[in-house]
Amino acid sequence: MFTYDFMQNAFVAALLVALVSGSTGYFLVLRGQSFAGHALGHVGFAGATGAVLLGISPFWGLMAVTTAGGALMGFLGERVHERDVAIGMVLSLALGVGLLFLNFFTGSAVQATSLLFGNVLGVDRATLWQMAGLAVFSSCALGILARPLLFASARPELAEARGIDLRLVSMAYLALVGVAVAEAVQVVGVLLVFSLMVGPAAAAQRLTARFVSGFWISVGLAAAEAVAGVALAYVTDWPASFWISFLSALIYMISLAGRQGKCGLF
Amino acid sequence: MSEAARFEGASLALGGRVILRALDFSLPQGAFIGVLGPNGAGKTTLLRAMLGLVRPVAGNVTVLGRLATPGQVAIGYLPQTRTPLSALRLSGRDLVAAGAGRTWQLGPLRRAQRQEVADAIEMVDAGAYADRAVSTLSGGERQRLLLAQALLGSPKMLLLDEPLSSLDPHHQAATVALVRRLQTRLGITVCFTAHELNPLLPVLDYVLYLGNGEAALGSVDEVVTPAVLSRLYGAPIDVFRVQGKIFVMADGHAVERDSHVHL
């Protein structure tokens, strides 16, 4: 299974995506903003298909829209919450517009399916390098942002009093979520971003309340789920995205059955 | 008398409306000061002015000898929490530690910083449950951890905004006693806002009563009188003392009870 180029690419892509989504997703769940990951995926679909229409790489189109969308959500802040109908409408519209763009271009069902549900076995070397570069960038940025982000997430009023610009932190963070979503889409597609961004992080926070352990468990679970998903896809010939979403849900359910809160296992 | 904070002709506005006019007083160093007054009187705004988060539209606010500016570590602050901590899946220790270290410090906390967090948790007697998830703690336990967070950075002054508002009478008394112990042990100034006077009575050195855009500072006996309070409420006020408690009444209603209604 490791002798094929496309399998090697798939495993590396899965690991890169797991690193980015597991780490970024931890804060997403901590901040109670899980919906943002989901929403950015939908919005990104229109960006990716729109880019194809304009003759640009769909990857960069996707990322331009998800990072800009993330920053905008951060800018609007709490006004975005409690607007579930408005958000739902925007998301449906984004998917609809994406479909329209796709229709203008080729009407290709393969292109649509790989954007919607991911196509990890189709990742080529060039995309892999782009993903690796973005993974390095997003890890460094998250590392720099981590301390003010944790403070602003746990104690916004106090962080503000200490001179932290809550809106700026939120915008920078959600833009990073946009990068992570663009990465995750390469593996699981816009519709299943939740399974890598939110599933492992939510399970990790069920298992431990400690910040450092929880963060690394989230990254570890994401990596395990992504790599196992690709391997199971090879063995069963079922889609990798199915296996990843299945493993993500399974591990989350197991974490629910485990000890609830307290000091956890670690 | 050395002073912790001084208001010189300071007018404070919120959303363009001046809610406290031409304040002129000094808060003495090392005292336990209860900040009281009806809802909307400007208690939170007054604390935020001392933190430099609200700039006076006229006059000056000086804190610990300097004009109030944001980011002063010498002031510990316990803000009112708008966001619920009941959903936060983070341990109490990590919640406290989120406020430690410099804002843009990279990497994990240094050993000395972790020790400071541990010391602050010990000071509020929260060691027994600090490693549990915040979401599993009671309101009183969370309040202690937030108090520990306010103690980080060895502040010379503590600004506590409504720390009693979500607690039952038993935990209210325990919190007040704890803050008093910390205040005397560390020799710091405490400004403690509250809706009700009585839980604070055993420990108060001074009362700063706000109302009607004005403020009155002094001992309980000087400030909590029909004359002063009638001026601050803009309505005739009676003050009754029953078994060591003080009841402030307007038209036969206890005004503190009425002001306790949250919007």
What does this 3D model show about the protein?
The complex is a heterodimer of chains A (266) and B (263). Chain A is mainly alpha-helical and 266 residues long. Helices cover 80% and strands 0% of the residues of chain A. Chain A has helices at residues 5-30, 34-54, 58-76, 84-105, 109-117, 125-154, 156-161, 166-188, 193-197, 199-207, 211-236, 240-257. Chain A is globular, with a radius of gyration of 18 Å. Chain B is of the alpha/beta class. Chain B has two domains: 1-74 and 167-263, P-loop containing nucleotide triphosphate hydrolases (Rossmann fold); 86-154, no CATH class. Chain B has helices at 43-50, 92-97, 111-123, 139-150, 169-186, 220-223, 226-233, 255-259, and strands at 3-14, 17-28, 32-36, 58-63, 66-67, 75-78, 157-160, 189-193, 206-211, 214-218, 238-242, 245-250, 253-254. The longest helix of chain B has 18 residues, at 169-186. Chain B is globular, with a radius of gyration of 19 Å. Mean pLDDT of chain B is 90; it is low at 258-263. The interface between A and B is large, with 33 and 38 residues.
